[in-house]
Design brief:
This protein has helices at about 1-20, 35-40, 65-70, 80-85, 90-95, 125-130, 175-180, 185, 200-220, 220-225, 245-265, 270-280, 285, 295-300, 355-370, and strands at about 20-30, 50-55, 100, 110-120, 140-150, 155-170, 190-195, 235-240, 305-315, 325-335, 340-350. It is an alpha/beta fold. It has two domains: about 20-225; about 235-370, 3-Layer(aba) Sandwich (Rossmann fold), CATH 3.40.50.10610. The strands form two sheets. A seven-stranded mixed sheet has the order 3-2-4-5-6-1-7, sandwiched between helices. It has a four-stranded mixed sheet with strand order 8-9-10-11, with helices on both faces. α5 (about 90-95) packs across α9 (about 200-220) and α11 (about 245-265) crosses α15.
Length: about 375
């Protein structure tokens, strides 16, 4: 009899332990699992959208495991779970918000700082999950912090700081499959995924920030006045010039991919055909764009700033399974020659793709890096 029961239950246990189905829930610690927000009737309204720049340094995800170990957290934490606290979902939320407009010339920069602080592995809940064959879920808890700093570039000071201590619960079991299908439909505090990565942490943090910030700024006329943008600066993305026809084709395709990605983020750019025309007219193609002539070239284009791609290195994409591309991209003010920003781009792909797909990925990753830095 026991063998029959075991035979019937064993497949169920196997499915429970290997099923990749998670229900995620996030809330701000101390808000009584969202109950306080239900009875929080403060509301604010804005007549116009606010121009902002974003700065989001997510490099902490590479140090998070060591950081948790130094705090005495010797529990294994998956990279997927860590990345949930450093997800670009926070930027997507700003992009889709009806209160904010991303503008590279905006005075106000919203600086986002995020971290994972603690993980509690399921112990009692795991025993209950096994005892109920997954009907009661195994619950893993993590704790972190998401901070939003409102930085005034003109005054060079932080005007407001908003901090949200996040509590995240990850439910695993058959109940996650059942409830995960409809809980997210009724609340932005829930998310359903097939792995440990979730967007609900950043969605919840942004939701709380947006509500608090809109309420505060609707009551503060002086703060509202700090949200302005300068006239857009015209940029010219200058190509690396080479006499090698094969390399020229590569640089042209790289140039166009980067240009398209940057333009899609709203940065005004000089048309490529105008750049090519002037290069041919004044024979820059003979000498190349040098330290001494690049500013003069930018002025001929009526560009306020020039963007240079240099130090490009790559491997061949013929019959390989890995593609590597490194280059430096630098923005220089045309009138003064002052370097405004510089970024080292490093791209590696282990997948076999065609060149245009590689370059699309490179350009997209670059544009996201520049947006996280507050440049785009």
């Amino acid at each position: 009899m026991s063998n029959i029961i075991f035979t019937r239950l064993f497949p169920i246990l196997i499915i429970f332990f290997v099923s990749n189905c998670y229900l995620h829930n996030a809330n701000v610690r101390g808000d009584m699992y969202g109950i306080k927000r239900v009875f929080d009737f403060k509301q604010g309204t804005l007549g116009n959208t606010l121009p902002i720049r974003l700065k989001f340094d997510n490099s902490g995800k590479y140090r998070a495991k060591d950081y948790l170990k130094r705090k005495g957290q010797n529990i294994e934490v998956s990279q997927e779970l860590i990345e949930s606290y450093y997800s670009d979902e926070i930027m997507a939320q700003f992009n889709s918000s009806r209160y904010f407009t991303i503008n590279s010339s905006a005075n106000i920069q919203v600086r986002i700082i995020s971290s994972i602080e603690e993980k509690k592995a399921p112990v009692i809940s795991l025993v209950a999950a096994i005892g109920t064959l997954g009907l009661f879920p195994a619950i893993t808890r993590t704790y972190g912090l998401v901070e939003f700093d409102i930085y005034d570039s003109e005054k060079e000071k932080v005007l407001r700081v908003y901090k949200y201590p996040i509590q995240h619960r990850q439910f695993a079991g058959f109940s996650s499959i059942i409830f995960g299908s409809f809980f997210p439909l009724f609340s932005d505090s829930f998310d359903h995924s097939t792995n440990e990565k979730t967007f609900v942490i950043m969605r919840k943090a942004f939701s709380e920030f947006e509500k608090d910030f809109v309420y505060d700024i609707s009551k503060d006329v002086k703060l509202t006045g700090r949200f302005f943008a300068e006239s857009p600066k015209m940029h010219a993305l200058l190509p690396e010039i080479t006499k090698d026809k094969k390399e020229k084709d590569f640089h042209d395709r790289l140039h166009e991919s980067i240009r398209s990605a940057i333009v899609s983020k709203g940065l005004p750019m000089v048309e490529r055909n105008k750049i090519d025309k002037i290069i041919n007219e004044i024979r820059f193609s003979q000498t190349g764009l040098t330290e001494s002539n690049r500013l003069a070239f930018g002025k001929l284009l009526n560009a306020d700033r020039i963007i240079l791609i240099s130090n490009t290195t790559r491997n061949s994409i013929d019959s390989i399974s890995k593609f590597k591309l490194n280059f430096t991209i630098t923005c220089v003010e045309t009138n003064s020659g002052r370097i405004l920003w510089s970024h080292q781009m490093m791209y590696v792909s282990n997948e076999k793709k065609d060149l245009d797909t590689y370059l699309y990925d490179v350009a997209y990753n670059l544009s996201m890096d520049l947006r996280r830095k507050g440049i785009l």
